[in-house]
Design a protein that fits this description.
two-stranded antiparallel ribbon; 6-stranded parallel sheet; 8 strands; Rossmann fold; alpha/beta; globular; single chain; 178 residues; 7 helices; 39% helix
Length: 178
Amino acid sequence: MEMNGMLERAKNKDLKITVLGMGYIGLPTAIALTRAGYTVHGFDVNKKTIEILRSGKIHIVEPDLQEAYEEALETGRLIATDKLEKSDVFIIAVPTPFKLIDGKPKADLKYVESASKMVGEILDEENLVILESTVPPMTTRLMTDILEKESGIERNKFHSVHCPERVLPGRILYELEH
């Protein structure tokens, strides 16, 4: 599927979207996409997080998010899962905590690298992989290198982009949707 085909399918809400990381950014992103009419698989490696989400509750504190999550569940378009499956679009929204290296704070990219490897193992040509995590320059290239290596697909046959979140706690859903 060329990007034009993906755009047409996006207009028709005919894309399978997976958000990796059901935390402070990933969960609201998944809910916002569900509200926009898409079916979204919310993936997390933390089985406890998935258990909580499957019970109809959320594990983070954010105004109006519990109600929005319940509404998303009622539509049947948001599925919490700990099994990563093939999708058209993957959104990587995993933590990038800081750690000290040589006395200077640097982003710890281990979660981005791990998520990229998992996606790479099931990546198909023409898939779109969006890195939503806040990361330093050149991280999208690192992600793309990992995707190419793990999938065996040349980088010009899939799409990889960085679209960082820019939201304030307490207003995340509002800022994602407006």
